[in-house]
């Protein structure tokens, strides 16, 4: 299966209100216990996502290297993890919930990210700003569960398949945006901006 196939098998949904909620659902060919461990064991997280530190227990805190941190709000192995997801000096409300359930000899993985998004950022990027990032993260998780190599996000967009995967993800979030009531012109502009952010065109030497 190609990276693009992997991206396209996910179901995406946007709940557009005062707070924005993006939902990603997909299936992994691994049992819930294995997926849970991959998402919560620090050694395994480093192998497919980012190093994590902190007081990793219910009520404790975590920090992903160079990325989000927060409080562990709920932890019910191997089916439910909920954390605050805070990044930057004034992040506002942001929570991520992951639910795992056994399905079809594997695991149904559902990620819900609810956040207060500055209007100017939402107007420019729409749900793709966070959605494409989660797509790439879950692509990395899938590769890890299948015994593959870690995706290097810093250079992923420089490969033909990486760029095509990012474009496919950005367009898929555009469809979710339109389904939630986004105007076609607004959605098209957000998809273009998101694609340019995650997969900028290489500059041609003068």
TrEMBL record:
Belongs to the AHA1 family. This is SRPBCC family protein. InterPro entries: ASHA1/2-like_C, START-like_dom_sf. The lineage of its organism: Bacteria, Bacillati, Actinomycetota, Actinomycetes, Streptosporangiales. Gene3D superfamilies: 3.30.530.20. Residues 29-136 form the Activator of Hsp90 ATPase homologue 1/2-like C-terminal domain. CDD domains: SRPBCC_CalC_Aha1-like_6 (cd08899). SUPFAM superfamilies: Bet v1-like. It holds the Pfam family AHSA1. It comes from the Bacteria.
